[in-house]
Amino acid sequence: MAERDFDLFVIGAGSGGVRASRFSAARGARVAVAEEGALGGTCVNVGCIPKKLFVYASHFRDEMSEAVAGYGWTVGQAGFDWPTLRDNKTREIERLNGIYAGLLRDAGVRHIEGRARIVGPHAVEVAGERFTAENILVATGGWPTRPDIPGAELGVTSNELFYLDSLPRRAMIVGGGYIAVEFAGIFNGLGVDVTQLYRGPLFLRGFDDDVRRHLAEQMQGRGIDLRLATNLTALAKARSGLRATLSDGSQLETDLVLFATGRHPNSADLGLEEAGVALAPDGSVVVDAYSRSSVPSIWAIGDVTNRLNLTPVAIHEGVCLSETLFGKAPRSPDHENVPAAVFSQPPIGTVGLTEAAARQRYGEIDVYRTTFRALKHTLTHGHERTLMKLIVDRKSDRVVGLHMVGADAGEIVQGFAVAIKSGATKADFDATLGIHPTAAEEFVTMRTPVAG
Ligand code: FAD
Ligand code: NDP
Fold first, then answer.
1. CATH fit for domain 152-261, picks 3.40.50.1010, 3.30.70.1450, 3.40.50.410, 3.50.50.60
2. 142 Cα nearest atom in ligand 1
3. What is the reported pLDDT for 205?
4. Which of 357, 348, 352 is nearest to 339 (CA)?
5. So what's the pLDDT on residue 441?
6. Distance between CA atoms of 10 and 117, rounded to whole angstroms?
7. What pLDDT is stored for residue 451 in this prediction?
8. pLDDT digits over 217-260, tens only?
9. pLDDT value at position 355?
10. Cβ < 6 Å from ligand 1: which residues?
C-alpha cells in the first residue's frame, strides 16, 4: 500500500485544531492543517480574545465615575471613540494570527489555506488538491444561529459585532446565554442604551439559580432593560434604525439587533455524511470517549462535537487526541468539574454543580451563601453586590459546587477550581486562612449553612 501523505490531516486551525496539530507534530507525526479563515479560529478572531478586550474597554466609564464619586479624583471631559478601540483590537488579533502561523511553522505542521472537504475515510480535498492521511481530525468549530423570523437578516451576530462601522446609540440583544449577557454588559458599559430579550423566565439556563437571579438584578441595576419571557418576532427597517416587534405585541425602535441565540456545529458540506460519519440531530459529530467518530479513521474535537463549547476544553480534547494517536496510551478528555467564567458585568465564575444538580445527585447537601457590597464600593456608595456560594455534599463533606458573581470572579474561581478538582472538603476550606482584605476570603470564612 502506498504511503499516505500525512499521519494526521486536521480540518480547522482553531483552538482545538492548532493544539492537536502542534502536539501531534511534536510527537513525530507528519501533520497538515487546513484553514479556510484566519488562524486561531473563533476564540482568537471573533470570540474570547476580542470580547475580553471589549469588556476591559467597557469598564473605564464605571471606574472613572467611581474615582470621582468616592476617591477624590477629578476627571476632565471623557469621551469614547469606537473606531480606535475596534482598530486597536484588530491589530492585536492580526498579531496573534501571525503568532499562530509561527507556532505551526516551528512545529513542522504544514498549513494549507482553503476550505477542506472529506472525500473518503483517508482523503481530503482542498481547492481541488487531494491529500491522503492515516487519520482525519474534524475541528471545524461552530457558527452563530439566527432565528427564523421575518427580517432576521437585518440583525447581526457576534461575528459582525467585532467590526461594526459605528457604535449604535441603542442596541437590542436577543438571547440569554453567555454571548447575550456579555454583550449586554459591554454595550451598557460603553454607554449604549441596551434592551435584552430572553424568551424564558430567567436567563443563563443551566447556571445556579441564585447566580442567575443575582446577575439579573445587578444588570437591571446598571440600567439594562432586561425583558424576560419576551422574544423578538419580527424585524423591519424604520425611518431611523430598526423596528422590532416583540412577542407581547409591542414595538420598539433600536439601532442594532444582536442575535445571541446560540451556535450550531460546523458540520455541513464537509463530506461527513458521505464518508459515513454519524451526526447527532443538532448536527454535531457523534464521538466516543476518545473523540473517535463512527468511521475509525475520522476523529472530531471542539465545538463541532458540542460537548462543552469552551476554548480550554477544545484544547484539552486536542491534547488528549494527540496522545491517543501518537502517544504511549490512549487518553480520553475529562469533562468533570470544568471551571467557567461569564464575562458579564459583574462577571460569573463557576465550577462544579449547581445547587439543584447537587441536590439531585447527592440528596443531602449543605449550602453556604453570602452577598455583600465589595469594599471598593463603600466609599462610592455603589449598589453592586457580590454573591458567593458553596455547595457541600453532607456525606463526604466535599465541596461539589462553587459559584461567584462579582468583580474578578473568573480570576478567583480559577484558583478554587484546583481545590474542587482535587476533592477538597469543607473542612479543608475552613482550615485555609483568608487573604485580607479580599472578596475571595469569603470562600474560606463561610461557616453557617443557609439551606440543607
Ligand atoms: P474554532 O475555534 O471555531 O475553530 C474552527 C476553525 O475551523 C475555524 O477557524 C474555521 O474557519 C475552520 N473551518 C471550519 N470549516 C472548515 C473547513 N471546511 N475547512 C477549513 N477550515 C474550516 N470560550 C471560552 O473558553 N472563553 C471565552 O471567553 C469565550 N468567549 C467566546 C465569545 C464568543 C463571541 C464566541 C462566539 C465564543 C466564545 N468562546 C469562549 C467559545 C470558544 O471560542 C470556542 O469554544 C472555541 O473557539 C472552539 O474551538 P474549536 O477548535 O472547536 O473551533
Ligand atoms: P448559548 O447556547 O449559551 O445561549 C443561547 C441563548 O439563545 C439561550 O438563552 C437560548 O434560550 C436562546 N435562544 C436559542 N434559540 C432562540 C430563539 N430562536 N429565539 C430566542 N432565543 C433563542 O449560546 P451563545 O450564542 O450565547 O454562546 C455559544 C456558546 O459559546 C456558549 O454556550 C459557550 O459554550 C460559548 N461561549 C463561552 C463564553 C465564555 O466562556 N465566557 C463566552 C461566549 C460564548 P434557551 O436557554 O431558552 O434555550
1. 3.50.50.60
2. 3
3. 98
4. 352
5. 98
6. 11
7. 65
8. 999 999 999 999 999 999 999 999 999 999 999 999 999 999 99
9. 98
10. 11-17, 34-37, 41-43, 47-48, 51, 115-116, 139-141, 158, 179, 266, 270, 302-304, 309-312, 314
- pLDDT band, residue 53 (cuts 50/70/90): very high
CATH architecture label of 6-48+84-144+264-326: 3-Layer(bba) Sandwich (3.50)
Joined grid coordinates for residue 109: 505542521
Q: Which atom of ligand 1 is nearest to the CA of 318?
A: 51
| Pocket flag, ligand 2, residue 343 (CB < 6 Å) | yes
Hey, is 426 helix, strand or coil? helix
For residue 253, what is its C-alpha cell?
425602535
Per-residue model confidence (pLDDT) at position 452:
56
User: In CATH, which superfamily holds the domain spanning 340-444?
Assistant: FAD/NAD-linked reductase, C-terminal dimerisation domain (3.30.390.30)
Q: Which residues are catalytic?
A: 436
Q: Domain residue spans in the chain? A: 6-48+84-144+264-326, 152-261, 340-444
For 392, the grid coordinates are: 457541600
Q: 414 φ, ψ to 5°?
A: -55, -45
147 lines ligand 2 (CB under 6 A): yes
